[in-house]
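New here. Invent one.

***
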Amino acid sequence: MERLFIAEKRFAMPLKKPPSIEADEFKSAKRDEVTRGRDFRESDAPTLEVLMEWYSVVRQCIEDRQDASGQVAYANEMGDIRQLPQISTMKTASAEIRALNKQLGICNGHEEAQRDARPSVPRTRGDDP
């Protein structure tokens, strides 16, 4: 006897924005951008919230650098030249954003388009990158 299985299609309900995201215009808009056209589980909600926090950190660092007229370094009390702390913070935030995007299965369309646009011509020994 042949058995037939009928798969039930479940429709994902949009996740409700947490108050911390809803209250911040930037985070709310960013969350809308990130979640548009994607289905997330309820268990993804905390990860999405952390992702929005990291995007907000990057935004704040950029604003801080703009306030510093684009300066990337400063001299401390000893006269040593040091990079602004915002540079290191942005590096950390960028790594966290990439990791969280990967965890959530979010692929950056820009990166995908760049990969697809690369020529698939085989390279020879004399080709320069």
Q: What stands out?
A: Residues 51 and 97 are 6 Å apart (CA to CA). Residues 45-67 form the longest helix (23 residues). Confidence is low (pLDDT under 50) at residues 3-9.
